[in-house]
């Protein structure tokens, strides 16, 4: 009940063409164009729904919105009451915003890190299946999760666990927590950092071979691989990471585990079973202090 999945992420970006080119060359994902008011927006087709990633041309690279899908108007009202009681000012989205999201109801608030968090009821299914490379089987299947790093870690945990009712799946003490809102191992991870940023967005794939082919396309097209192919210790996903034009990572992954109701949260210790060598320093290589 309540929040049921990660719906979409919107970004302000300084180079929309570089972003859409990265998705096209590496993942075989194309963009469609839309408008909100007078502003153009590029929508990336990750699955059969209207979009999972929206790109707005801007003078700066920054997150714009994080959208969570809520399963009913009744649950949206209940969550709104919980947020209001916790001190968050909840506002209705505009008619244009609601239409662009493909939602029937839209509300939003500002989280402790300063990001706009949206709660949407409804999703607009606009195709039977997006176009994919001929070797995809089935290729990209959706938006999996994101990792938010911030000095406001305690406040963010309070929001997601106590107010939005996410559950901790596992963690690495004292500064990295993986949270779920459905059976997927995690839809968000929260980490401590000196400055607020999105560390990465994860793009789900339908098979291990699709991840391998995406890796081949990235190498062939000179896309910077920022973290090598590997398997995570906690969710068991196999993935690699590329650096996107805004400077953070995209994780290209497959095979994350599902979690049962009787799962016990625990410290998973080592980050990876194998691989995932970082080109740059890994901010999560050791527990945060």
TrEMBL record:
The keyword Iron applies. Its cofactor is Fe(2+). Keywords: Aromatic hydrocarbons catabolism, Dioxygenase, Iron, Metal-binding, Oxidoreductase. One of its GO terms (molecular function) is ferrous iron binding. Belongs to the extradiol ring-cleavage dioxygenase family. It comes from the Bacteria. Pfam families: Glyoxalase. Gene3D superfamilies: 2,3-Dihydroxybiphenyl 1,2-Dioxygenase, domain 1 (3.10.180.10). Residues 5-122, 142-255 form the VOC domain. This is Biphenyl-2,3-diol 1,2-dioxygenase. InterPro entries: Fosfomycin_Res_Enzymes, Glyas_Bleomycin-R_OHBP_Dase, Glyas_Fos-R_dOase_dom, VOC_core, Xdiol_ring_cleave_dOase_1/2.
């Amino acid at each position: 009940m309540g929040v049921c999945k990660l719906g979409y992420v919107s970004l302000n970006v300084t180079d929309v063409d570089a972003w859409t080119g990265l998705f096209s060359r590496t993942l075989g994902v194309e963009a469609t164009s839309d408008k909100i008011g007078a502003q153009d927006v590029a929508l990336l087709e990750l699955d059969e729904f209207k979009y999972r990633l929206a790109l707005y041309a801007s003078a700066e690279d920054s997150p714009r919105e994080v959208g969570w899908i809520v399963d009913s108007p009744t649950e949206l009202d209940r969550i709104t009451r919980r947020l209001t009681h916790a001190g968050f000012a909840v506002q209705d989205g505009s008619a244009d915003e609601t239409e662009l999201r493909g939602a029937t109801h839209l509300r939003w608030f500002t989280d402790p890190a300063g990001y706009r968090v949206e709660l949407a009821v409804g999703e607009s299914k606009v195709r039977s299946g997006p176009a994919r490379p001929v070797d995809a089987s089935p290729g990209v299947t959706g938006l999996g999760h994101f990792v938010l790093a911030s000095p406001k870690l305690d406040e963010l945990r309070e929001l997601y666990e106590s107010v939005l009712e996410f559950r901790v799946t596992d963690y690495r003490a004292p500064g990295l927590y993986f949270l779920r809102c459905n059976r997927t191992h995690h839809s968000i991870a929260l980490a401590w950092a000196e400055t607020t940023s999105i560390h990465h967005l994860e793009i789900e794939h339908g098979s291990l071979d699709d991840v391998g082919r995406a890796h081949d396309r990235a190498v062939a097209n000179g896309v910077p691989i920022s973290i090598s192919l590997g398997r995570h210790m906690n969710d068991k996903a196999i993935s690699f990471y590329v650096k996107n034009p805004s400077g953070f990572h995209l994780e290209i992954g497959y095979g994350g585990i599902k979690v049962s109701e009787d799962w016990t949260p625990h410290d998973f210790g080592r980050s990876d079973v194998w691989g995932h060598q970082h080109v740059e320093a890994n901010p999560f290589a050791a527990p945060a202090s």
